[in-house]
């Protein structure tokens, strides 16, 4: 094998390795973006649940403090 052929094959291997490394980095970046999106959505879901519970507690407390028994009168 001549020096030119060796250089050609070395360059082919180098470029293949470089391309594989770039694919791995892109795959890792895609994975990290998906994880970040999942965590952000989960946090938003949890915050929505907490907000709904807080609103319900405030409503119940407001009715209790104002003496609003309107719902109980309608149920009877």
Could you outline the blueprint of secondary structure elements for this entry?
Elements (H helix, E strand, L loop, with lengths): L2 H64 L3 H6 L1
Binned, the helix content reads: over 70%
Q: For the report, how would you describe the main beta sheet?
A: none
Low-pLDDT residue spans: none
Termini gap: 99 Å
Principal-axes shape call: rod-shaped
Name the helix and strand elements from N-terminus to C-terminus, one letter apiece. HH
User: How many helical stretches?
Assistant: 2
Structural class: mainly alpha
Strand content: under 5%
How many whole angstroms does the radius of gyration measure? 32 Å
How many domain modules?
A: 1
What is the average per-residue confidence, as pLDDT, rounded to a whole number?
A: 92
Q: Give the strand tally.
A: 0
Features:
76 residues; mainly alpha; 92% helix; rod-shaped
Walkthrough of the structure:
By secondary structure, the protein is an all-alpha fold. The protein has one domain (3-75). It is built from two helices and no strands. It has helices at residues 3-66, 70-75. 0% of the residues are buried. The model has no long low-confidence stretch (mean pLDDT 92).
Brief write-up:
The protein is mainly alpha-helical.
